[in-house]
Amino acid sequence: MTFKRLVVGITFLGIFTMAVRASVGYDTWWHLKAGEWMLANRAILRTDLFSLTRQGSSWIYPGWLAQILLYVAFRNFSFAGLNLFTALMVVAAFAFVWCTLEGRDLLKAFIILLAVSASGVYWSARPQIISFVLAGYFLFVLYPHRKRRAWLLWSLPLAMILWVNVHGGFAIGFLILGVYLCGETVQMVHKAVQDDQDWRSAWDQHKKEIYRLLLVSFLCTLAVSINPHGPQMILYPFKTVSIQVLQDYIQEWQSPNFHHAQTLPFLLMLLLLIGTLYESRRRGDPTEIILVLVFLALALLASRNIALFALVAAPVITRHLDALLDDMHLDSGSAVQLPQNAAKWLNLAVFLLLIVASGLKISSSLSSEVTQDEIEEEFPVRAVEYLRAVQPKKNLFNTYNWGGYVIWELHPDFLSFVDGRTDLFDDEILEEYLISWRGLSGWERVFETWDIEIVLLEPWAPLRMRLESQGWEIDYEDERAVVLSSPQ
Fold first, then answer.
1. Spatial contact of 427 and 419, defined as CB atoms under 8 Å apart
2. What is the pLDDT of residues 23-52, one digit of tens each?
3. Is there a contact between 302 and 257 (Cβ–Cβ < 8 Å)?
4. H/E element, 398
5. What span, in angstroms and rounded, lies between the C-alpha atoms of 82 and 442?
6. CA 416/CA 402 separation, integer angstroms
7. Which three-class secondary structure state does DSSP give residue 483?
8. For the segment 300-339, what is each residue's pLDDT rounded down to a tens digit?
9. CB atoms within 10 A of CB 274
10. Which end of the chain is least crowded, N or C, by CB within 10 Å?
11. Which DSSP category does 56 fall into?
């Protein structure tokens, strides 16, 4: 095994080992339930069946295929299947990124592992993880396509057909295409203005690329219509980002908090990006500058976009940092060299030892007991078991983060009041939820409107005090959750 192969092997072994972990998130549960329903009924789920507040309403969601894939992984391999599926998606995304990196092998390994650490906040068993891979594919195709892989550009409309059927993040693909189109235009204008070329000559040099990107973008737009809901899916991303409650109260849609340790790799990537671009002797390409600025802005607006920034920034940092290392003449020619044959066997031995160590960690992460322990830390497992046993069949008000778990464990006996499907509930229902959970003026009207008779909350939720003051009874309580029912 050569040193180059050893570096690549260790890098991706490390990525896979980091990515294999408990991947169940708040939204995983309703995705699984939707996938289960579609497989059982052999139909696409088009109306809401799971909530009290939107039952029977049209539900236009682009992730049907991803939901089926997630449920199949869970049905066949339980939580280990979800964990492995998520890890493989992470590895695939960074494999595309690796193909765009330039420079020393160790430098590439360091930067990509830093990018992996920064993006870790994004990993969970949700359709977003497939969207992450497709974003990596778009960047891979567009980054080198003018040099070596121009034919792959025509695969993007096909990739868009897949993307629009797994997640609403397909808008990211259009954003990347738009950046490359903008970058090509900026280069044309720069040549005409700064390089003393006439406009016709500058246009002649860039028109083929501009036309090609415009045509691919048009084909991708047509591809968006190839989904169970038709052309109306084009508007889906705009509807999602227009929900104000989503921006104001959902953590992953808020700006990153740099006081949290999980954001420190992102901060380090940002500092490296600024430093390398400032010091590098290589001239910054307009496209890469626009790309990192656009995705940096998105990451600063919403922490969920940090993972996308990591994909975009890694090739730029590596290219310019490698140029800086060249200027510093850090390569050493005096190091002791092992005989080539001995070095190959040593590299192989090191890699095999790391595989064994990694396997021990991965086997632990795939254990159902480990995942179950994490679920019990995040979800009201025992309170839900109580509701399942009693089955009072009353209208339920639940904490937002637990709505998906209620759907998975208690449907159809209980419907969620609200859950992670913000595109379905929009501001109207989400604001009613916030008023009620906070115990603000008007919560009684909400409870009367929806005839709420039983409540599943955190023990410290403000609404609990309001309910107890009006005679609601505590049916069940533990350190994680409390169940209250209306007075008879």
1. no
2. 999 999 999 999 999 999 999 999 999 999
3. no
4. strand 396-398
5. 41
6. 9
7. strand
8. 998 999 999 999 999 999 988 888 887 776 554 444 454 6
9. 13
10. C
11. T
